[in-house]
Design goal:
Blueprint: E1 6-10, H1 20-25, H2 35-38, H3 41-44, H4 51-60, E2 65-73, H5 77-86, E3 93-97, H6 105-118, E4 122-128, H7 131-139, E5 144-146
Helix pairs in contact: 6-7
Amino acid sequence: MSLYKTVVIVDVDGTLSVNTDRFNKFSKLKGNGDLVAFHSKEEVLKDPPIHDVIKVVQDLAPWNTIVILSARHEKDRHVTEEYCRMWNIPYDMMILAPDGDETPAHQFKVKTCNDLVSQGFQIICCLDDCHLNIAALRESGFTAFHVRERGY
């Protein structure tokens, strides 16, 4: 693994994978807000990949540091790493929220990006599916692309 100073930030759920079925199955709105099941290996590995986004990440990987940045918790690292291996998603670093941390995703992601910049990295772009994350990243001066399952 060779770390380049230029960084591409990549989200997981909804960006590299389609988690709509899993979200609907365990939605609090449907009375089943079971986050343990939502993040279980059995359920996560069923998420279909978003192949065109994965291809973009694969194309950027040889010349940039790829950072998987997700509000998933550290306890979910093993299944996230397995998902990346399963779909040949390259990455150099994976940053997940600390276990028990309930900081909103947009705040966690902006803080983490600022921390990377303070360590000397240059973030060239962020790929994310959440409009709140995109807005917060852009407001903080980062180039952020809104990824959706069927378009950008």
